[in-house]
Amino acid sequence: MLKILAVFFWLLALSTSQLNALDLDEKLKLVIGIYNLKPISCEIDQRLIDDRISPIGDIVFNTTVLSGNHDTSCSTCHIDEKHLTDGLPISIGVGAGENKSDRQKSTGVIVPRNSFTLFGRAGPNFDAFFWDGKVHEIDDLIYSPIGEGYSLGFKSPLAVAAALPILARDEFLGKIAFFNNNKSLSEINPSYYKEKFNAANKIIKEIVISEDKRYLPLQKAIKHAGVSVDDVDLAFIGNSLASFIAKKTSDCKLSDWEKYLEGDPASLSVGQKKGAIIFFGKGRCAACHSGNSFSDFEFHSIGTPQGEFGTHIHSQDLGRGEVTFKLEDRFKFRTPPLIGASKTMPYGHNGVFKNLESVISFHINPIPFFVKNGWTSEKEILTYGKLLSSRSSKLGFIEIKDRNELLSVVDFINSL
Question: 20 to 30 Å CA-CA from 308: which of 101, 318, 380, 385?
Answer without folding.
Answer: 101
